[in-house]
Amino acid sequence: MKLKSTIFLVIAFLIVQLFLFFQSNLDHNLQIQFIDVGQGDSILITTPNKQLILIDGGPDTNSNLESVIGSKFFFAPCTINTIVATHPHADHINGLTKILESCDVANIFLTNTYYENPDYVDFLQKVKDENATVKYVETNDKFEIDSVGFLVLWPNYSVLRGDTNLNCPTLQTCSAPACSDKVMYNLLSASPVECENPNYVSIVLKMTYKNFDTLLTGDAEEPILEKLNLKERIEVLKVPHHGASDSLDKPLIDTISPYIAVISAGTNNVYKHPHTQVLGAYSDRKITTLQTVTSGTISIKSDGEKFWVE
Predict the structure, then answer these.
(1) Is 94 in a helix, a strand, or coil?
(2) pLDDT tens for residues 14-46?
(3) Could you report the per-residue pLDDT of 112-171, keeping only the tens digit for each?
(4) How far is Cα 91 from Cα 198, in angstroms, rounded to an integer?
(5) CB-count burial class (<10 Å; 0-12, 13-18, 19+) for 187
(6) Which of these, 49, 52, 73, 261, has the minimum number of CB atoms within 10 Å of its CB?
(7) CATH classification of the domain holding 85
């Protein structure tokens, strides 16, 4: 009797999963999933015709990223059009290393920065081993995937190198005292920058689908955010740096005036993200704020005109 019940439950589960899989494939809206990866960032974008763009992969401390991506394929092999690693911190790249081991990836976009950390070396090695087109992006680079456009707003390497306050010198060779890991240096593009604060070289993207815009900020902090020169309204904002106080730029918020602000952070994290000052700034402006720490994975869809939270 127990065996029959188990078989029935397995069959019922598979039927439900098949229904959800086919239902999702009939949905031709843009979907943005801010995945609950704990204290980190991971955003999965599904284009109207089911191309996947993965921006960061979190710290690899739970299985939520793999579960969300797995739901897109059922029994089919995992294929991802583009991966974007915003910067080298472990809470953004460690999960990507695992994804590169299990999925075929066509394009990988990186920031060209030297950062001594074994997790970063492992990630860069996986990137090199992947049969993918690798590009180190910078300000004003553009790419389009299935009618969804992406504009790179940062990093601007000329500004990084020229602004002494940012402390991002260029490493021309690995013979300088500042460069001790030649293996990692050789995995990067020519003349990487080495920022005292790696968040200063975090990739910032503006994503556009018809009349719907999203600003994806990675861990950019205030000195970078104030250089973005945005002038138009943005419907959805990924709040920079998990809602840390060092990433609160009120003039930027006022300029882009988002309808929804999404914060990705972990429960009871040691950094106390998101900061009450940040939450207050969005509340004062009557901006709807969603948090993975309270809502889990957050899914926003758009047909290019309207958008909604699922």
Answers:
(1) helix
(2) 444 545 455 555 699 999 999 999 999 999 999
(3) 999 999 999 999 999 999 999 999 999 999 999 999 999 999 999 999 999 999 999 999
(4) 13
(5) middle
(6) 49
(7) 3.60.15.10
Query: Is residue 279 in a domain?
Result: yes
Report which of residues 281 and 14 the model is more confident about.
281
The pLDDT confidence band at residue 175, using thresholds 50, 70 and 90, is confident
**Is 65's pLDDT higher than 90?**
yes
Handedness of CA 125, 126, 130, 133 (dihedral sign): negative
Handedness of CA 224, 228, 233, 237 (dihedral sign): negative
Pairing of strands 288-291, 298-302: unpaired
* Residue 295 to residue 88: CA distance in whole angstroms: 27
Residue 273 resides in a domain: yes
Give the pLDDT mean for 259-277. Answer: 97
Which residues constitute the domain of residue 266? 30-304
- Say how many domains are in the chain: 1
C-alpha–C-alpha distance, residues 202 and 160, integer Å: 11
Cα 134 to chain centroid, rounded? 17
Give domain status of residue 271, yes or no.
Answer: yes
How many residues are present in the chain? 310
Residue 22 lies in a domain: no
Amino acid at 75: F
CB 130 within 8 A of CB 122: no
